[in-house]
Amino acid sequence: MTDILRTEDLKIYYGQNEAVKGVDLSFSGNSVTALIGPSGCGKSTFLRALNRMNDEIPGSRMTGNIWIDGNNINAPDTDVTVLRQKIGMVWQRPNPFYKSIYANVAFGPRYHGVKNKAELDGIVEDSLRKAALWDEVKDRLHTSALSLSGGQQQRLCIARALSVQPKILLLDEPASALDPVSTSKIEETILQLKEQLCIVIVTHNMQQAARISGHTAYFYMGKLIEYDETEKIFTNPSDPMTQEYISGRFG
Ligand SMILES: Nc1ncnc2c1ncn2[C@@H]1O[C@H](COP(=O)(O)OP(=O)(O)OP(=O)(O)O)[C@@H](O)[C@H]1O
Fold first, then answer.
1. Into how many domains does the chain fold?
2. Which residues in 4-34 are b (16+ Cβ under 10 Å) and which e?
3. pLDDT digits 0-9 by tens, 168-201
4. Residue 32's beta-bridge partner residues?
5. For labelling alongside 163, which of 99, 155, 208, 220 has CA 20 to 30 A away?
6. Residue numbers of the domain that contains 142
7. Which residue windows are transmembrane per the record (predicted)?
8. CB-ligand 1 contact for 240 (6 Å cutoff)
9. Cα angle, residue 54 at apex, residues 8 and 5 outer, rounded to 5°
């Protein structure tokens, strides 16, 4: 499979603190890659770099390259809005806008110039279907997004990210604040989205990583220790550090 996203010697700093220490990783289309590792090892920092979300953090800077479709996203002429259209992101806590369900999903397409109501209606329905939320909300599209449960809000945030047709979806512990039923709905949604997207997910939940990802990257203290097929990482990792982490977490 062709890689659509690749990092090369990526280093990320907060002031003097080097949080990510020269990571090379590649991601292909139609795949789910899990980023795992102990708290503070740099998973979220690495993830946020992939659509330049760290730009928003004062004192943060990065070196190295991130290639998407052959373009270096760290190039000074990169249009960050266009970049974030291609690479969507969903955070740990659902963060819908204080607007209707419809307006949340229509926000991105409207921002990018879609005005036609029929077209917007189509995008909203399609995005909500892909996020496995349509059947639950189709009769209340114009009610507040905040009237939804936490799990529904998170699927709404996924629909919102999908509405601008990204190629890549970044998920930062998207189910860690949810109950088991909502978690399994999010996991089912991720598995369906894999058919169309490249997905990178940070998770603390080893079982979740094993259930949904094809490849897993193990980070420790800012370094990428091991990257391989998920089954290999969880059954027979090559690096003793990975083994120690996995057995501690599973044992
Ligand atoms: N906004 C920030 N400002 C300064 N330092 C930060 C910031 N965010 C993260 N760091 C530091 O960068 C390092 C990596 O943190 P990061 O949140 O990326 O790790 P993580 O593996 O995602 O952790 P967790 O699993 O707890 O979310 C840590 O030393 C952390 O203190």
1. 1
2. bbbbeebbbbeeeeebbbbbebbbebebbbb
3. 999 999 999 888 999 999 999 999 999 999 999 9
4. 199
5. 208
6. 3-250
7. none
8. no
9. 35
Give pLDDT, residue 251. 43
Provide the ipTM.
0.97
CATH, residue 215: 3.40.50.300
CA of 127 to the centre of ligand 1 (A): 31
How far, in Å, is the centroid of ligand 1 from the Cα of 142?
37
Reduced to 3 states (helix: H, G, I; strand: E, B; else coil), residue 71 is strand
Q: Which residue do the tokens 């059954």 mark?
A: 235
- 175 in ligand 1 pocket by Cβ < 6 Å? no
Strands 168-172, 198-202: pairing kind = parallel
Question: For the chain, which residues score pLDDT lower than 50?
Answer: 251
